[in-house]
């Protein structure tokens, strides 16, 4: 990783090749077999059934600013190319150890550098109700009409609904996006049923694959932002496939995360350029154009191969996740 993200500086994933192409199994290290089984379902469906046919051939992409000091914001944004082409910026806030003034200053710096971009903040559920109200009021004032939404400002589903109420009663109608409340619960549709959010952030691996994620979005009736979870370009192609298949895509997607890596496993990484990533496509004899993950580069695979010990750890996880998936 170019910079610490989700508390990590190094990312490991397992790559799987099936008849429909390459796929990625990369549950985060702390995930157990039950959570990992969703990620495995996503990888197996991608590698065996493919990634589907696209409705659009490019996807608008937001930049992501980790919890860095304001002085480092410009450098992070420079990784995304021409600043004027960035349609929206997601800014991480409420990271452990960060103070509330730094979070606001980071948002202000993004607004200063990119006065025309949409602004979102992501607290990963880490704010208390009082902190969320106070911070979002400050951020709404700084960002003004550019403020698109706040992603999972507080943990849970009911608290999101309560926060929406509190902000509205203060005349600060910030849109609320559910993220962890979608992918960390048994029923991803409960958010929509309770009116707890204005939109949902969807990631392919925790929802068990492109088809399942599409189904959840369609049934929720909410606008969706497709996001990635520190995937290599191979895993990322499944997120692009979902974004390419959603009937409506009103917001730029959080699929620019390959920019956070120092290295990738494919020769031409799926990085945003001019604010979009082209969807990787292939001609299929029966289905016409389909989304197809890129091939890993053998030399890069060799260079970034993990130790034998880490490989054994990954095969154990694969086996445990497979037992859960097979049992279901
Ligand atoms: Mg999030």
TrEMBL record:
**What keywords are assigned to this protein?**
Metal-binding
Q: Which CDD domains match?
A: OSBS
What is one Pfam family matched by this protein? Enolase_like_N
Q: Where is the signal peptide?
A: none
Pinpoint the Mandelate racemase/muconate lactonizing enzyme C-terminal domain residues. Answer: 73-170
SMART domains registered for this protein in UniProt: MR_MLE (SM00922)
Q: Which GO terms describe its molecular function?
A: metal ion binding
The record's section on NCBIfam families has: PRK02901.1
The identity of this protein, by name, is: O-succinylbenzoate synthase
Can you name the source organism? Nesterenkonia natronophila
């Amino acid at each position: 990783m170019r910079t610490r993200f989700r508390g990590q500086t190094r990312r490991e994933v397992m790559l799987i090749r099936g008849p429909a192409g390459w796929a990625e199994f990369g549950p985060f290290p702390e995930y157990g077999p039950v959570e990992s089984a969703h990620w495995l379902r996503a990888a197996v469906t991608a590698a065996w059934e493919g990634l589907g046919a696209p409705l659009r051939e490019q996807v608008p992409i937001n930049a992501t600013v980790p919890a860095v000091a304001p002085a480092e914001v410009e450098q992070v944004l420079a990784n995304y190319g021409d600043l004027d082409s960035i349609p929206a910026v997601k800014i991480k806030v409420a990271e452990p150890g960060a103070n509330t003034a730094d979070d606001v200053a980071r948002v202000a710096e993004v607004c200063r550098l990119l006065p025309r971009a949409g602004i979102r903040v992501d607290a990963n559920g880490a704010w208390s109700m009082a902190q969320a109200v106070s911070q979002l009021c400050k951020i709404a004032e700084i960002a003004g009409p550019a403020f698109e939404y706040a992603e999972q400002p507080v943990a849970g589903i009911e608290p999101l609904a309560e926060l929406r109420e509190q902000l509205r009663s203060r005349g600060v109608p910030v849109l609320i996006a559910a993220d962890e409340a979608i992918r960390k619960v048994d029923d991803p549709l409960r958010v929509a049923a309770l009116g707890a959010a204005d939109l949902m952030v969807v990631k392919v691996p925790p929802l068990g694959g492109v088809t399942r994620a599409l189904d959840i979005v369609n049934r929720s009736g909410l606008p969706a932002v497709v996001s990635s979870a520190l995937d290599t370009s191979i895993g990322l192609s499944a997120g692009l496939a979902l974004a390419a298949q959603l009937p409506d895509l009103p917001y730029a997607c959080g699929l620019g995360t390959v920019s956070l890596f120092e290295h990738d496993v494919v020769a031409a990484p799926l990085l945003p350029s001019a604010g979009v990533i082209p969807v990787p496509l292939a001609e299929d004899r029966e289905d016409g154009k389909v989304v197809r993950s890129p091939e890993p580069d053998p030399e890069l695979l060799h260079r970034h191969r993990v130790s034998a010990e880490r490989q054994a750890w990954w095969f154990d996880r694969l086996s445990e996740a497979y037992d859960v998936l097979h049992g279901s």
